[in-house]
Write a structure and sequence with these properties.
Blueprint: H1 2-40, E1 51-54, E2 59-62, E3 66-69, E4 75-79, E5 88-100, E6 114-119, E7 127-135, E8 138-153, E9 159-172, E10 176-177, E11 183-184, E12 189-197, E13 207-218, E14 223-225, E15 228-236, E16 239-247, E17 254-260, E18 262-267, E19 270-275, E20 277-282, E21 287-293, E22 299-302, E23 305-311, E24 318-319, E25 331-332, E26 335-336, H2 337-358
Antiparallel strand pairs: 1-2, 2-3, 3-4, 4-5, 5-6, 5-13, 6-8, 7-8, 8-9, 9-12, 10-11, 12-22, 12-23, 13-14, 13-21, 15-16, 16-17, 17-23, 18-19, 18-22, 20-21, 23-24, 25-26
């Protein structure tokens, strides 16, 4: 009788233990499944964007920025996809390279100091090449403008030689970090590598200046008026990056024109860096940004960029980020915030399940 009673007592306990064990196994499987699903739901390419080159219109179309090259030359007409149905755009137009004798040392070009110049606005001057490529593992669209530009001495009809000039435009599909630590924003920032090679100098003591017109106009190439501009400085490691922020009451988005305050000089296998000076002259129809480069031999490289900035609907003030980027569209360390929230929820649910099972 005692043995029978003991067996009957143990048997229900075994059933309870087995049932709890099964529940634990099921819960662990459920937790594992939730974690796997949450990771599978994450994008295969973090913060990846879409971009394409339209050769018929000479336009790079990306998620956060659209850039049209007017007449297939370095005249950048820029807007954002949200404003495709409007006519207003910003213009950044590289028009001229000038050699000048900076006698007063003010790093500004006076008409009386100009020794020679090369125009960048002639039609059918540029050789254009576009390609989809990968740079350091990051996909990019590269559109290059290259030309041998005739240089004319002041007071002379004929040219004194030619200089090689290139504008190599890159838009990355993901964020891309440069050697100096500056991060190019994927899908909304156009990096421009400017190269000037073998300039036929008139004087050994002169400098070079690159003139850029900044304006607001339409998408057909007409520049109508100067935008409001505000200068900012960004510190990136040991480098200083200047930002000229462009704003207009004719459109709801802002643009930033950025450049590093130094250039790379290459000559006979040697590489050095030199300071870039700049000046800004605001006029009614446009603003003129002048980059002043030192005298050099060989090749000069400078790399400005054009960035589309976010417009806050409530305050109307632009900040860095994708255009119209909401809270759940923001990134934290390159990971979309919505996925971090999902992982956090999964972790909380898993902890609650484990606590309940233990009880």
């Amino acid at each position: 009788m005692n043995n029978s009673f003991t067996v009957l007592l143990i048997f229900p306990l075994e059933l309870i233990l087995i049932e709890r064990l099964n529940r634990c196994i099921k819960m662990k499987k459920l937790i594992a499944l939730l974690i796997i699903v949450s990771f599978l739901a994450m994008p295969t390419q973090i913060a990846s964007h879409d971009a394409r080159w339209n050769s018929k219109t000479g336009t790079i179309e990306a998620d956060g920025i659209i850039v049209r090259f007017f007449e297939m030359r370095p005249h950048y007409i820029v807007w954002v996809p949200e404003f495709n149905n409007t006519t207003t755009a910003y213009h950044i137009n590289f028009i001229r390279i000038v050699e000048f004798d900076d006698k007063d040392g003010d790093n500004a070009v006076d008409d009386s100091e100009v020794l020679a110049k090369a125009e960048l606005t002639a039609k059918d001057l540029w050789s254009v090449k576009a390609e989809n490529t990968t740079i350091d593992g990051v996909k990019a669209i590269v559109v290059s403008f290259e030309a041998n530009i005739s240089v004319f001495k002041t007071g002379m009809k004929g040219g004194i030689g030619q200089a090689y000039v290139a504008f190599i435009n890159k838009i990355f599909l993901e964020n891309y970090t440069l050697e100096n630590g500056y991060e190019i924003a994927g899908g909304r920032e156009l990096k421009i590598d400017i190269k000037i090679k073998d300039w036929p100098w008139v004087s050994e003591n002169s400098k070079l200046a690159l003139l850029v017109l900044i304006a607001v106009g339409d998408k057909e190439g007409h520049m109508e008026k100067a935008p409001e501009t505000h200068m900012h400085q960004i510190q990136v490691r040991e480098s200083n990056v200047r930002e000229l922020r462009l704003n207009s009451t004719d459109t709801k988005f802002q643009l930033a024109f950025r450049w590093e305050e130094q250039v790379r000089l290459q000559f006979e296998g040697n590489e050095t860096y030199a300071k870039v000076n700049h000046s800004i002259l605001a006029e009614e129809c446009d603003s003129i940004v002048t980059f002043v480069y030192p005298h050099f031999n060989g090749t000069l490289e400078h790399d400005p960029s054009i960035v589309a900035l976010e417009t806050e609907a409530t305050e109307g003030e632009a900040t860095e980020g994708g255009v119209g980027e909401g809270l759940l569209e923001q990134n934290v360390g390159g990971i979309p915030l919505i996925y971090l929230i999902a992982l956090f929820v999964v972790a909380i649910v898993s902890i609650v399940i484990v606590i309940k099972v233990k009880r």
